[in-house]
């Protein structure tokens, strides 16, 4: 089972390895937009939207990796003050009854919008923008699947550890 958890980790590690470059690309594109606008009086709605697309892609696809490296937001009012065994029980409960059901609900409720967007190849957000809103909306279920996979990997490890 731990081999399955390691394989699931590799999915999010691979995705993070690819999308991390979007942070650099976003910075360079945003710099180009600012220089173009203020130095040359040029403006491009599509270029501005590309920053939005890159930011959304980076945020949504790196969420599973963030969970993997334990850098997600944790409300640890009680968590930090309890024993390792209690932390393990809290984590198991959180994965099984909070995180996974939330992600499944997100897939369920977002899927009709994603499907409809693909059916019409939904166009740009703004006039002159990128004609690929259907790709942007597709990030929602992909995000949920990546988080579910990482949650499953963490859950396997939690259940494999024997705590006295």
Walkthrough of the structure:
Helix 1 (about 1-20) packs antiparallel against helix 6 (about 135-160), helix 2 runs antiparallel to helix 3 and helix 3 packs parallel to helix 6. The model has no long low-confidence stretch (mean pLDDT about 95). The chain is mostly helical and about 160 residues long. It is built from 6 helices and no strands. The two termini are about 20 Å apart. Belongs to the TRAP transporter small permease family. InterPro entries: DctQ, TRAP_DctQ. It is found in: Cell inner membrane. Part of the tripartite ATP-independent periplasmic (TRAP) transport system.
Helix and strand topology:
Elements (H helix, E strand, L loop, with lengths): L1 H18 L1 H20 L4 H17 L1 H6 L15 H36 L13 H28 L4
Helix pairs in contact: 1-6, 2-3, 3-6, 5-6
Task: Summarize the structure in short.
One of its GO terms (cellular component) is plasma membrane. Helices cover 76% and strands 0% of the residues.
Assembly category:
single chain
Rounded mean pLDDT is 94
Q: Regions with pLDDT < 50 over 5+ consecutive residues? A: none
Report the strand count: 0
Radius of gyration: 20 Å
Features:
about 160 residues, mainly alpha, about 75% helix, TRAP transporter small permease protein, cell inner membrane, cell membrane
């Amino acid at each position: 089972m731990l081999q399955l958890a390691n394989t699931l980790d590799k999915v999010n590690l691979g995705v993070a390895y690819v999308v991390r470059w979007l942070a650099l690309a976003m910075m360079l594109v945003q710099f180009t937009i600012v220089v173009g606008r203020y130095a040359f009086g040029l403006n491009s709605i599509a270029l501005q939207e590309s920053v939005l697309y890159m930011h959304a892609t980076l945020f949504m696809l790196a969420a599973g990796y963030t969970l993997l490296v334990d850098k997600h937001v944790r409300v640890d009012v009680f968590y930090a003050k309890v024993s390792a065994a209690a932390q393990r029980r809290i984590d198991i409960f959180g994965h099984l009854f909070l995180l996974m059901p939330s992600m499944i609900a997100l897939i369920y409720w977002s899927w009709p919008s994603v499907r409809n967007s693909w059916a019409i190849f939904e166009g740009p957000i703004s006039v002159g923008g990128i004609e690929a809103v259907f790709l942007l909306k597709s990030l929602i279920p992909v995000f949920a699947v990546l988080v579910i996979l990482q949650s499953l990997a963490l859950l396997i490890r939690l259940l494999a550890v024997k705590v006295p």
